[in-house]
Amino acid sequence: MQTTTRTRLLFTLLGTVIGGLAVGTVFVFYALATKHHYQELETFYRGNVAGHEVVGISYFDYHGVGFMESNKWKVQMRRADDQLVTLYQSRPLFQEALPHQPKIEVLDNVIHIDDGIVKLAITVEK
């Protein structure tokens, strides 16, 4: 039984496709199994409230699957000893549900935040 060049090429192509599928499947499972990573995007508010430096940070939390991207944000205060204290942290929401930059208003020692879903008032004591 003789094999023709055409048959050899067909089996080579078939082996390449099957091998590619096997390697691709391993990479897909690896990507789905990887842990979350965290990346801060930008500081959308920075100022002093009741003598404390307050930093609000908008950040993006990626869960390893493209369509499961979510937005979170948090409000942090920097204490006199330069330590960051988290005053509030939002729950994860789908990217379309949360505006990139919440509305911030500071009156005396109260920080008012409206992200379109949550209206929050944080009182900072001296």
Characterization of the model:
Keywords: Membrane, Transmembrane, Transmembrane helix. The chain crosses the membrane at residues 9-33. With 126 residues, the chain is of the alpha+beta class. It folds into two domains: 1-33; 37-123, no CATH class. 23% of the residues lie in helices and 44% in strands. The protein has one helix and eight strands, in the order αββββββββ. The protein has one helix spanning 5-33, and strands at 37-49, 52-62, 70-78, 84-89, 93-94, 103-107, 110-114, 119-123. Strands 1, 2, 3, 4 and 5 form a five-stranded antiparallel sheet that branches. Strand 1 (37-49) and strand 2 (52-62) form a beta hairpin. It is rod-shaped and about 90 Å long. The termini are far apart.
Beta content:
35-45%
In the predicted model, the low-confidence regions spanning at least 5 consecutive residues are 61-68
Q: Return the string of H and E elements.
A: HEEEEEEEE
Could you tell me the number of beta strands? 8
Number of helices: 1
Integer-rounded radius of gyration = 25 Å
Q: Average pLDDT, to the nearest integer? A: 70
Distance from first to last alpha carbon:
92 Å
Number of domains: 2
Helix content: 10-25%
Form type: rod-shaped
Secondary structure class reads alpha+beta
Question: How does the major sheet shape up?
Answer: 5 strands, antiparallel
Q: Secondary structure elements and their pairing?
A:
Blueprint: H1 5-33, E1 37-49, E2 52-62, E3 70-78, E4 84-89, E5 93-94, E6 103-107, E7 110-114, E8 119-123
Antiparallel strand pairs: 1-2, 2-3, 3-4, 3-5, 6-7, 7-8
